[in-house]
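#onboarding

Welcome to the new folks! Below is a worked example of what a typical request in this channel looks like: someone posts a single protein sequence, and someone else replies with the predicted structure as tokens. Don't worry about understanding the tokens yet, we'll cover that in week two.

Example request:
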Amino acid sequence: PPTEPPAPPAPSFDWESMLGVRGAAWMGGITLVVAAAFFAKWSIDQGFFSPTIRIAMMLLAGTGALAWAELKLREGFDSTANAVSGAGVVTLYLAFFAAHSLYQLFGLTVTFVAMMLVTGVAAVIAVRHAALFTAVIGLVGGLATPVLISTGVDRPLGFFSYLLVLAVGFLHVAERRQWSAITMLSLAGTALLQLGWYGTYLAPEKLLVAMGAFAAIGAAYLWHALRVADAKEPLAYQVSLGGGLVPLVFVVAVAADPRFGPQWALVLGYLAALGAGLTWIALRHTQPVLVAASAAATGLALTVQGAAIEP
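Example response:
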């Protein structure tokens, strides 16, 4: 019988496309954003237009770029369309940020919701058109939103709810398009924001909220790891698995903090709940690394907890 032909080799990274048409399109989109920013600064320095008109022009420019990319450029100019839509997303982020922070035209809630919608639009465009550039811009903008519009007042429920929705949304994008880079960027961004909140706002009275938030975000990454485990995406699986273990790192850090010594029972109970949950998942999905990580975190937490409890 005739033998089956050998499987085609895995495609190598398309450097020609990156340095050619696609790279030129991306550079064009970046140049468009930079030019828009310089024009906005120049108009402000010269005193042209009122703040309302400036923001309206930026909103029209961003919306127009998205509409132009979707209605006119998709047929035959897909790389250019992706770059233009990315520029539109960035312009909208800048418009809402300036409207809130510089001119106080929009309140905090309106700005927050508007920037969430922009992030959602970027995610939809990225999945629909395989636009990695737009996905990166949308994710970076979404991660920057809490920092850009921060008033210095801690609202942990709103902050962590937003972070959870953002992580779940872009992990779904990463799974649909098999983009390990989005998984890595999402984990790096959410972990950095969690670390920033931990160092700035965490106090004994907020410990219970923090425990639930870290567990929920960790569960989102663990969910993603289990979904891509059978999809032959080793990098996405490993990165997401690391994100699922962040709550263990958090509880060890809390156990070592003398401020939470009087709450040792809550800390150890949380650790036990995490261990039980990870063990159950490990048994159902044959993930022994979860048991090993849980055991290591338990031993380390018990070691440092004794030093943290004040006599």
